[in-house]
Amino acid sequence: MIRARMFAFVGALLLALVTGVACASAAPPPAPTPAAAQLVCGRPSGKPTVAGRLVLRTNQCLVLEEPDGSLRQLFLATASNIYPALPVWSPDGTRVAFTQQLFFNGKAGADWGDDLYVMPAAGGAPELVRAHRPTGEQVQGVAWAPDGKALVFGDFEPIMKDGNISSYSGHLKRIDLATKQETTIVEGAFTPSFSRDGKRLAFMMDQGLFVADPDGKNSKLLVPTGQFQTLYFPRISPDGSSVAFSASAPAPGTRDLAPRPEGLLDRLAALFLFPTAAEAHGVPMDIWKVDASTKALTQLTKFFEDDPQPAWSADGKLLIVHATGALYEVAADGSSISGAKVLGPGTFGGQVDVR
């Protein structure tokens, strides 16, 4: 997630540079063809899905995709170093919460960090819910409280050493949308996900993937960090019986090119602050699910994708997965493991939620 931020921004700068050079020397472009005119934020219409309405982060946009594949732009960032991220539907489907990521622009003393917003799904101006406070503060995961009156988010606060960010401290926090009052739910936790009935909460900690009561108490470790080489993006099923996540199992003979920090929080920070060449796009990942009662693991895909992020359909039968290579529809029972349905193109650093 953090690494996607850096490379999305670098890609945007390179694209802007190439485009600027081309525009300075080339003739005016021809009028768009009908097919090109149908693009929304550079994205073509997708294939139909019964999973539901999708909200996608693609490039510098948030896009709504209807079940018939038609698209509508919801939000467009207006500066080259700003990207929306982590879009999530409100419980009643009328609003979308997301983060706006302000990237470092390379200038000494420049401000950067993540802000929380909420906006109407029908369109309109986003409302700022929470601005980053220290420079470099980041949001790792956003979820709506089951009653729709608050957001729960992973707050990554920078730890400074000799005037530089050396690592991050994680906290799972709740912010009331009316009063803006914040409370900490779980120290050291991030990437929250609630079941639709609001009775179960999934999140990550340094030790791995957990489920707990909605207040963070009575937590249970489902997948320890060392069980997979990478472990990201947990999303709990609508009924709370299982948790889907992205992971890559260690391959025989695989080794890191450089020593890695011991904690998961520090490894996430390392991806952004000092990534190695091997981590530029990460190791190939797949979607798995873990039973919240038995801890039994089921592999759901074999597409070996880059940063695949899953989201459940309302009935719990399907997962929509946004990855660098494509947007996929995956059967939650594992029956599509030999070949997930491709709904449309992917996006580096793409994210999705389903309503």
Secondary structure blueprint with pairings:
Elements: H1 2-25, H2 34-37, E1 54-58, E2 61-65, E3 71-76, E4 82-89, E5 95-102, E6 113-120, E7 127-130, E8 138-144, E9 150-161, E10 164-176, E11 182-187, E12 189-194, E13 201-205, E14 208-212, E15 220-224, E16 230-236, E17 242-248, H3 264-273, E18 286-291, E19 297-299, E20 309-312, E21 318-322, E22 326-331, E23 341-345, E24 351-354
Antiparallel strand pairs: 1-2, 1-24, 2-3, 4-5, 5-6, 6-7, 8-9, 9-10, 10-11, 12-13, 13-14, 14-15, 16-17, 17-18, 18-19, 20-21, 21-22, 22-23
Integer tally of domains: 1
Can you count the beta strands? Answer: 24
Please report the number of helical segments: 3
Average pLDDT taken over every residue: 84
CATH topology: Neuraminidase
Strand content: 35-45%
So, CATH architecture? Answer: 6 Propeller
CATH superfamily (homologous) name: TolB, C-terminal domain
**Helical/strand content category:** mainly beta
Order the strands across the largest sheet as they lie in space: 3-2-1-24
List segments where confidence is low: pLDDT < 50 over at least 5 consecutive residues: 1-37, 251-262, 266-280
Encode the helix/strand succession as letters. Answer: HHEEEEEEEEEEEEEEEEEHEEEEEEE
Q: What's the CATH first level?
A: Mainly Beta
